[in-house]
Design brief:
It catalyses: queuosine 5'-phosphate + H2O = queuine + D-ribose 5-phosphate. Keywords: Hydrolase. Catalyzes the hydrolysis of queuosine 5'-phosphate, releasing the nucleobase queuine (q). Is required for salvage of queuine from exogenous queuosine (Q) that is imported and then converted to queuosine 5'-phosphate intracellularly. With about 350 residues, the chain is mainly alpha-helical. It is about 50% helix and about 5% strand. Strand 2 and strand 3 form a beta hairpin. Helix 10 packs across helix 11. It is globular, with a radius of gyration of 19 Å. The structure holds the ligand Nc1nc2c(c(CN[C@H]3C=C[C@H](O)[C@@H]3O)cn2[C@@H]2O[C@H](COP(=O)(O)O)[C@@H](O)[C@H]2O)c(=O)[nH]1. The site of ligand 56B has 19 residues, from helix 5 and helix 15.
């Protein structure tokens, strides 16, 4: 489909509200929303719900806040999609620094492993022309299951690297600086410049957007720059939660999101949903709206409790917390299916 620009497409927040108001197979549970807000209230003053948790809690993330760290975030979020395995017990694994990583973290481990091997995988001048064989080697698995969509990852690396060289002098920091400390301007610049970030579809006759990877790229840029300097986005709270396949699962587990019996059975049977399917859109849209409502409820509870949270609580920090929570409660969540969509957008 020819890209006609972002005009005429609902923003992620508007899309989420519209979907939640019209959804048939997924709904937000207000009691569950409140319970999750109360769970988060207990953590509001903790290390998780603050921008420096991104580095403090995750050893694979860069320690620095320099240009190289920003370019690390860019190449990782360009490839930050579709890690789920056909069988949970047979998945891609990457060993790094004496530990074994799966899912999203297998991507980060592979990037760091390549850098240690002297492969400049975070440099656009390298990945603009990296070959498929080199990509197979860089993202090789230490289990007998390969990382999904390697060929798409190769195509996207070449496409994205070429554009970064042509338009932004080969560094994502130049793209950040052009956004003049506006998260929304950076989001727009990324979506307009890099086709693989155009996470848009339609629902009930309206063109809607999730921009999941563009939003998490803005969020991770804010985090790696520690919310300071070029990363001091005055409108960072306008970014919504990132509509992936893990957050809906944890929100159902916590009772804030509910699936119809028909949809739940379909997911339990492992039926795949296509990108843009009505039910897939309802899962993603209701999950985004659910986190917006949790945030509103949490801010109300904080107000009432008189507790002073450290810094501003926003949907990004709630998303990070819930995503990490899902990681740490993988076993408990076994009975709750995540939806299986194979695509390059999340
Ligand atoms: N909503 C949301 N989705 C996120 C992330 C992350 C990691 N990002 C931050 C978190 C810690 C680091 O500090 C990063 O900054 C990955 N994903 C998505 O999850 C899926 C992979 O899941 P699994 O198969 O279990 O590894 C896949 O769609 C991936 O795109 C997030 O934070 N929020």
């Amino acid at each position: 489909m020819e890209w006609g620009g972002m005009e005429g497409i609902l923003t992620p927040r508007e899309s989420a509200r519209f979907i939640a108001e019209n959804s048939r197979d997924v709904c937000v549970d207000s009691g569950g929303v409140r319970r999750v807000a109360e769970l988060l209230l207990a953590r509001a003053a903790g290390p998780e719900l603050r921008v420096d948790g991104w580095k403090a809690l995750h050893e694979l993330n860069p320690r620095a806040a320099d240009e190289a760290a920003v370019n690390w975030v860019f190449v990782v979020d360009t490839l930050n999609f579709s890690f789920w395995a056909e069988q949970e017990e047979h998945k891609c694994l990457v060993r790094y620094g004496g530990k074994t990583y799966s899912g999203y973290w297998s991507l980060c481990a592979a990037v760091n492993r390549a850098l240690d091997e002297g492969i400049p995988i975070t440099s656009a001048s390298y990945y603009a022309t990296v070959t498929l064989d080199q990509v197979w080697n860089i993202f090789r698995s230490d289990s007998d299951v390969a990382m999904p969509l390697i060929e798409e990852r190769h195509r996207i690396l070449n496409e994205t690297g070429k554009i970064l060289l042509e338009k932004f002098g080969g560094s994502f920091l130049n793209c950040v600086r052009k956004s003049e400390k506006s998260a929304q301007k950076l989001l727009h610049l990324v979506v307009e410049s890099f086709p693989s970030y155009r996470d848009v579809t339609q629902y009930k006759g309206k063109r809607i957007s999730f921009y999941k990877r563009a939003q998490i790229l803005v969020a991770d840029t804010w985090s790696v720059l520690e919310g300071k300097g070029d990363g001091c986005f005055e409108d960072i709270s306008s970014i919504t939660m990132f509509a992936d396949y893990r957050l809906p699962q944890i929100l159902v587990y916590l009772g804030a999101l509910k699936y119809s019996d028909k949809l739940l059975k379909k997911l339990l049977d492992g039926v795949m949903l296509s990108y843009g399917d009505k039910q897939e859109v309802e899962i993603r849209g209701c999950a985004v709206w659910c986190v917006e409502l949790i945030r509103d409820c949490l801010l109300e509870l904080i107000e009432k409790s008189g507790e002073k949270p450290n810094g501003e609580i926003n949907s990004i920090l709630l998303d990070y917390y819930l995503w990490d929570y899902a990681r740490d409660h993988r076993e408990d969540m076994k009975g709750i299916p995540f939806h299986r969509t194979r695509c390059i957008y999340y």
